[in-house]
Design goal:
The protein has 14 helices and eleven strands. The protein has 395 residues and is an alpha/beta fold. The longest helix has 16 residues.
């Protein structure tokens, strides 16, 4: 029995700072995905919403919020939250419903209206919240966390700030070709180096922004897609959502520790585990991948993903970058969409947006940023408390 599901439609609301309610963005993306699928809203029997905690109560029940905004028609609703991995968890939930035979068609939606500035925990003392603890006790804000990872690459592999800047240059060049991106201007390495220091060695243009935006997918069983006829759809072959193992060789904030009773040999990091689980489920490996969309919170973190996805040996990410392999026109373009460098974070939407980019690329519809002959792509994303995701799509 195949575990594939079909992507009938993909839609997005452009990223930016629009100052409107998150549900408005989500509805726009949902309608775009339905139009792309050639389906009426009434044909959808299940809605899975990726939650946003910053949206208040409606954000916590996003599935119902989007269903109400589209017009209540009796579809089942589900709401999920996994921080930055929420969108892929929503895809996994939809896939489970389809493969279980509960429904043939599911609408997946994620949207956010992000606050100004860098993300931080809500006000108030919450000593049972590891995310609050890493801010309050360690002073490890998100930029500090990104900076620590950048320093780790510098110490282990000899990477430099100039190397990190080239990631931004690459992604900005791709984002300049993407009409949905927030930042659509190419930048030079000199401009990155001239931008203000945020957390040494990272500068402003090394770190992604926070954004408003939305993305949606219409997913179905393969049988439903075949009954409709038409061209063969993009298929989701694997969805990985594994959790970390203890002990880890590096600390992924805010996971400061865990129960040592389950400790065994040092485990691979969560990012490498996510990729391996996705490859295993898809029955393929890194050599089969034509493109990747990864979670580039900072330029240095994108380099880590190259190695975690096994696009190159550990420590060789800069070599791969400087070879041009991960740029448009290269052997395995990474963040052909422009990545978070060009979009910024709209937390519940970004993992869905990554899949939307794969769909566009695998259909051959990406225009100036098209990856020639793209047949298989992978996404990778990481959220708080050990949540993470990797999705493999193919044509």
């Amino acid at each position: 029995m195949t575990r594939d599901i079909a992507v009938l439609g993909a839609g997005m609301h452009p990223w930016g700072k629009w100052g409107r309610p998150f549900a408005e963005y989500g509805v726009a993306a949902a309608r775009a995905a339905l139009a792309d699928a050639g389906l009426e809203w009434s044909a959808v029997r299940s809605v899975v919403g990726a939650n946003t905690v910053r949206g208040g109560y409606p954000g916590h029940v996003s599935g119902a919020t989007f269903a109400r905004a589209l017009g209540k028609q009796g579809a089942r609703v589900t709401s999920v939250y996994a921080a930055c991995a929420s969108g892929a968890q929503a895809v996994a939930t939809a896939r489970a419903q389809i493969l279980a035979g509960e429904t043939d068609v599911v609408l997946v939606v994620g949207a956010d209206a992000a606050p100004k500035g860098f993300f931080a925990p809500s006000a108030g003392a919450r000593p049972d919240d590891p995310d609050w603890l890493r801010f309050a006790l360690l002073g490890a804000t998100n930029p500090a966390y990104f900076g620590l990872y950048a320093r780790r690459r510098m110490a282990l592999y000899g990477d430099t700030a100039d190397d990190f800047a080239l990631v931004k240059v690459k992604n900005a060049a791709a984002g300049a070709q993407n009409p949905l991106a927030r930042y659509r201007t190419a930048v030079t390495a000199e401009e990155v180096a001239a931008s203000p220091v945020v957390c040494d060695p990272l500068r402003l243009l090394d770190v992604c922004a926070t954004s408003d935006g939305a993305a949606a997918l219409v997913l179905s069983s393969m049988d439903f897609a075949r009954r409709r006829g038409g061209p063969s759809p993009v298929r989701i072959r694997a969805v990985s959502t594994v959790s970390p193992s203890f002990p880890q060789q590096t600390v992924d904030f805010p996971d400061l520790a865990t129960d040592s009773a389950v400790a065994a040999a040092p485990a691979p990091g969560i990012r490498a585990s996510l990729a391996q689980a996705a490859y295993d489920e898809a029955g393929m490996g890194p050599d089969d991948i034509d493109l990747a969309e990864v979670y580039d919170l900072s330029t240095a973190l994108e380099l880590d993903w190259y190695e975690d996805l096994r696009l190159c040996p550990r420590g060789d990410a800069v070599k791969l970058l400087r070879s041009g392999a991960t740029a448009l026109g290269g052997r395995v373009p990474v963040n052909a969409s422009g990545g978070l460098a060009s979009f910024g974070e709209a937390v519940p939407a970004q993992a869905i947006a990554q899949v939307c980019e794969l769909v566009t690329q695998l259909r051959g519809a990406a225009g100036a940023r098209q990856v020639p002959g793209a047949r298989i792509g992978i996404t990778a994303n990481q959220g708080l408390f050990g949540h993470g995701s990797a999705v493999v799509a193919m044509r």
